[in-house]
Amino acid sequence: MSDQNPVFIPGPTNIPDRLRNAMHIQTRDHRAPDFVETFAPVLEDCKRVFGTETGQVITFPASGTGGWEASICNTLSAGDTVLVARYGMFSHRWIDLCQRHNLEVQVIDCEWGSGAPADLFEQALKADTDKTIKAVLVTHNETATGVKSDIAAVRRAMDAASHPAMLFVDCVSSLASMPFHMDDWGVDIAVSGSQKGFMLATGMAILGVSQKALAAMETATLPRTFFDFRDMMAANASGGFPYTPPLQLIYGMRESLKMLLEEGLDNVYARHFRLAEGVRKAVEAWGMKLCAQSPELYSDTVSAIYVPEGFDSNELTEHAFNAYGVSFGIGLGEMNGKAFRIGHLGSLTDVMVLSGLATIEMAMADLNYPFELGSGVRAAQEYYRATAAANQ
């Protein structure tokens, strides 16, 4: 019966029945005229979620990592310099990917739990008098630490430095869950995926690409075949794909966008904030601390929580799964063994979140954590009760 329990990992997220039913289809001809009627609205409605009117939406059958690779191999050349801050596992992995593509990676190392250092970006860009830096890479929502970075501040820093570098943003665990304003923030490539805020299975990398980034293809020489923007856009123009598409995911994506727009994006974002705030109230009641160093950094999709000194967070998540059949996020990288994560994004309600908080409390009590059983659930209940009217 444990497969009926929701997961509380920061992705892949719970798939609502409406989307599972949408993907439960027989094989269809992706070159038939009626496929255009399904696929074209996906590309158009995604623009609303990215917050762009002028950008192009491009999808690939891949995870977010494939989206990272597509972003650099279509716009950069071997030996180009990119500027990246490392403040979590996913910013670290993007750095590794760039290095494997023979890019010169200028890394600003930051403490895990902090966000994108706009001031240090500005300093580095001002020091780059020859304008060798071609792109600034930022992780909007660092899933390993539960940190949300201020992308608008990064754009202001780039503008203050009068630097022409492109701005690439990983929004895999934030898009369709937290506000994203691609045009207003001057983002050139935004990388997301189907398995988090869109509430689907893993398998679609979804990119928002600016006209500036598209123009960069003219001089970029990194090799690309599967991830070639030109091939994909040429096929998309007539409603098709340059190769076999992930058909079931596209049908699911069509329904996912309908769900998000029916709820209203502002309501989606408010729901995620409310769910996250209830979790944060619980953490405070437990006497524990978030990895995110200050409230403006708190993510509305995942909370990374330090366990008390002398306890192993991996033992906690394993016990919660083995004893109660519920999955929570393990600590990644520097957080391994020190923190666990509660994912609170996608298809979730306050009632579901309360079940997750109650479960992790049982697991902590089983392992003799120094807290009062029920304290976190009670704190979250009080918050959800107080905000229930505003949520109607």
TrEMBL record:
What is the protein name given in its UniProt record?
Serine-glyoxylate aminotransferase
What are the entry keywords? Aminotransferase, Pyridoxal phosphate, Transferase
* Gene Ontology terms, MF aspect: alanine-glyoxylate transaminase activity; L-serine-pyruvate transaminase activity
Coiled coil (UniProt feature):
none
Which InterPro entries is this protein grouped with? Aminotrans_V_dom, Aminotrans_V_PyrdxlP_BS, AspGlyoxATase, PyrdxlP-dep_Trfase, PyrdxlP-dep_Trfase_major, PyrdxlP-dep_Trfase_small, SP_NH2Trfase/AEP_transaminase
All residue ranges annotated as the Aminotransferase class V domain in the record: 30-291
Query: What family does this belong to?
Result: Belongs to the class-V pyridoxal-phosphate-dependent aminotransferase family.
Presence of the UniProt keyword RNA-binding in the record = no
Please indicate if the UniProt record lists Transferase as a keyword.
Answer: yes
Q: Which GO terms describe its biological process?
A: glycine biosynthetic process, by transamination of glyoxylate
Residues bearing the modification N6-(pyridoxal phosphate)lysine: K196
What is its cofactor?
pyridoxal 5'-phosphate
